[in-house]
Design a protein that fits this description.
alpha+beta; two-stranded antiparallel ribbon; single chain; 232 residues; 4-stranded antiparallel β-sheet; 15% strand; 2 domains; globular
Length: 232
């Protein structure tokens, strides 16, 4: 570990590349966090991701025409940070098997499942994504736990459950084929251009709503990833 490395240094390094520190925790064996490349156990795991469109601006500036451009960009920016800070970088893509980022996020900060599935945060709502994690052999000091409850607990109307035009998002699960069939037609252009209607209906964190270009990129990538399996 380089002298002076703490969560503030990690947060600053992530901010330099347009990413945010979304929380950190001290892993236990049950968390199944891999060790560092040299075999040292991971004593601190910091979650890196995007909130709003800050990451998108950095990605667009440095984007390369390549397969899975956002995943490739995430590797290019996070791996040098990990090396510089004597840590290791982990990613939610590249599987199977996939690392349990959703579970790790709930250990790292006040994230909880929303009624439509994705994790929600009390401040930025559903407008975030986990791009990677930085693991360290040192047990870095952490802030006091953020024990705020899920904002969904006090949301009486739950507009996210009644906004999808084809009813693909329900408490019992996410009907992916129905969703993809809808957004693959002109009738679903609104969801492609501005992001999922159910996601937009949530009143939490609306100031972090993605831009139209970012929304189109993510939604188009989603359709491209899942449609071949649905059509086969």
């Amino acid at each position: 570990m380089q002298p002076g490395v703490d969560l503030a240094a990690v947060e600053a390094a992530l901010g330099d590349v347009g990413l945010s520190l979304l929380g950190a925790f001290h892993p236990k064996p049950a968390d199944a966090v891999p060790p560092l490349a040299d075999g040292r156990p991971t004593a601190t795991l910091a979650i890196a991701g995007n909130v709003g469109d800050t990451m998108w601006r950095a990605f667009e500036r440095d984007r390369v025409d390549e397969p899975n451009p956002l995943d490739a960009w995430s590797r290019r920016v996070l791996e040098p940070i990990a090396e510089r800070l004597d840590g290791h970088a982990l990613f939610p893509f590249g599987g199977p098997p996939y690392l349990p980022f959703q579970r790790w996020a709930q250990r790292a900060g006040p994230y909880a499942p929303s009624p439509i599935g994705p994790l929600i945060h009390p401040d930025h709502g559903l407008w975030h994504a986990f791009r990677g994690a930085l693991g360290f052999a040192a047990r870095l000091p952490l802030p006091l736990p953020d024990d705020r409850p899920s904002p969904c607990e006090s949301c009486a109307d739950k507009p996210c459950l009644s906004t999808c035009p084809v009813g693909a998002l329900q408490p019992g699960g996410y009907d992916v084929p129905t969703c993809v069939a809808h957004i693959s037609t002109p009738a679903g252009e609104d969801c492609i251009a501005l992001s999922c209607r159910a996601r937009r209906a949530c009143p939490v964190g609306r100031i972090y709503t993605y831009s139209a270009k970012q929304s189109r990129f993510h939604m188009s990538a989603f359709v491209h990833a899942v449609k071949p399996a649905i059509d086969s």
